Amino acid sequence: MSGVSTLTTPDKPPVRAWLPTMLTLAAIWGCSFLFISVGVRELHPMYLALGRVVAGSAVLLVFLAFKREPLPRDPRLWAHTFVIGAIGSALPWTLFGYGEQRVPSLLAGIWNGITPLIVLPVAVLVFRTEKFTAQRVAGLLIGFLGMLVVLGAWNLDGGADLTGQLLCMAAAVCYGLAVPYQKRFVAGSTVSGTALSASLLLCATIQLAVVAPIVTGAAPPMPWTLSPEVLGSVLALGGLGSGIAFVLSMRNIRLIGASMSSMVTYLMPIFAIAVGVLILDEHLTWYQPVGALVVLTGVAVSQGVVRRPVRSGRKPKKPLQPEVAPVP
């Protein structure tokens, strides 16, 4: 195995160059749901999201200062990042917070895995950046079946659990809107990924700073009034999950491309479930991990990871490639 991993070509970096980074990203983003669960114990979901975007913005601005790289200057680009900041950061992170007040963090991690299933129909029907194929439609149907299994659709009785799951699903839908929007309106920009991410987090900061006090009816709590666990969770969500992890993600995208880098989607639920069970003592019913496997199978089929053998002389379909994976 070690001999295989060291083989490389000019177009294919060795596995050891990108796999540790991918595992680190899966761990950081998979653990984000644990940090959200801890954070909403003392913080309103909107203020948890606000703390996260503030910390994430600070980390990325430090990176930009170190690289001596400016923020975007194009007003149109700022308008688009304002939209992405809302549907790709402020809104989904708030929805996950509301959701995790009602359901275990590991379920939120599972629902995050449906994002690619939302990206595809939105990209095809709304932004027209992709096309449906029989394989992609099959993948969507498999994924939809998996979503029903995760929900336990045969045993629904309403209540907090259903509401929490639907809130987490809505957060994943927001990601599914943000990715093709970014690909349609921002992907052609010459601005670096770090500067782009910093700008959208700054936009999300402004949005939440204005909206959160109106919705909650109260000012945000001072940091020193929070317990060390909650304060650490906020810093981890922003500094690691929305700051350092993004820089690591961009490194992998440059090394192995957006499509291969998006495979982190399959690893994140594993970490989310593991930390939820081991650290928070959360529990799964049998159909939730089964449904998660069905969802991820649908994702794999729809993205072309699993495909039928291609006849000689015919080129395989190019898989859907989000420019930047959404940060959970």
Helix and strand topology:
Layout: H1 2-5, H2 15-39, H3 45-67, H4 75-99, H5 105-112, H6 115-125, H7 134-151, H8 159-185, H9 193-216, H10 228-261, H11 264-278, H12 287-302
Total helices: the number is 12
Beta-strand percentage? Answer: under 5%
**Rough outline:** globular
* Topology as a string of helices (H) and strands (E): HHHHHHHHHHHH
Distance between the termini: 32 Å
Poorly predicted sequence stretches spanning 5 or more consecutive residues: 1-10, 321-325
Class by alpha and beta content? mainly alpha
Count the strands? Answer: 0
Look at the structure and give the mean pLDDT.
Answer: 84
- For this structure, the quaternary state is single chain
**Biggest sheet statistics:** none
Cα gyration radius (Å): 20 Å
Level of helix content? over 70%
List keywords for this structure.
328 residues; mainly alpha; 12 helices
